[in-house]
Design brief:
Helices cover 62% and strands 0% of the residues. The chain has 189 residues and is mainly alpha-helical. The longest helix has 84 residues.
């Protein structure tokens, strides 16, 4: 043997039991476990493959095919390959135009949905504001009625009251209490 430096023996890997996944979820779980055994190891993430595109047509064609007699037997195959390549290029251009058209339609649809959603939001906002204002107005009017009632009570305490006036006042107070129980606005419409 050589007198050079010797390497220490490699640590033996533990034998892994053979596990056959029975479902896609189990297969995914096994892959995740294998990745998480060594979290320091970099994970290969495949990059998005570029979309296939045909070769651009040549700027200068050297082998121009004419309709003259005497073409060799190999010329048909050359013509066939050129024709196939040109058809592929045309199909690709048609597919790209269709894809672009679909993308534009999708973007228009997104914009339309966005404007409709904004209009609905604005409408609901206006409705909420209107209800808020109604609540405030109802609250203010209730406070004003209370103040007027207190003022009336202080004025009436100065006058001697008869039993008929007391009954009328009690009845009006009951009516006011009934009014206070009624909702000043309608929800859910």
């Amino acid at each position: 043997m050589a007198a050079g430096p010797t390497r220490p023996p490699r640590p033996r890997k533990e034998p892994q039991p053979l596990v056959i996944p029975r479902s896609a979820a189990e297969e995914q779980r096994l892959k995740l476990e294998r990745l998480m055994r060594n979290p320091d190891k970099t994970v290969p993430i495949p990059e998005k493959l570029n979309e296939w595109a045909p070769r651009p047509p040549p700027e200068f064609v050297r082998d121009v095919m004419g309709s003259s007699a005497g073409a060799g037997s190999g010329e048909f195959h050359v013509y066939r390959h050129l024709r196939r390549r040109e058809y592929q290029r045309q199909d690709f251009m048609d597919a790209m135009a269709e894809k672009q058209k679909l993308d534009e339609e999708y973007q228009k649809k997104l914009e339309k949905n966005k404007t409709v959603a904004e209009e609905q939001t604005a409408k609901r906002r206006r409705k909420r504001q209107k209800l808020k204002e109604k609540k405030l107005l109802a609250k203010k009017s209730k406070l004003e009625q209370k103040k007027e009632q207190e003022a009336d009570d202080s004025d009436s305490s100065q006058k001697p009251q008869t039993s008929e006036e007391e009954e009328d006042r009690d009845a009006s107070e009951e009516e006011k209490e009934d009014d206070a129980e009624e909702a000043s606005f309608v929800m859910g419409r």
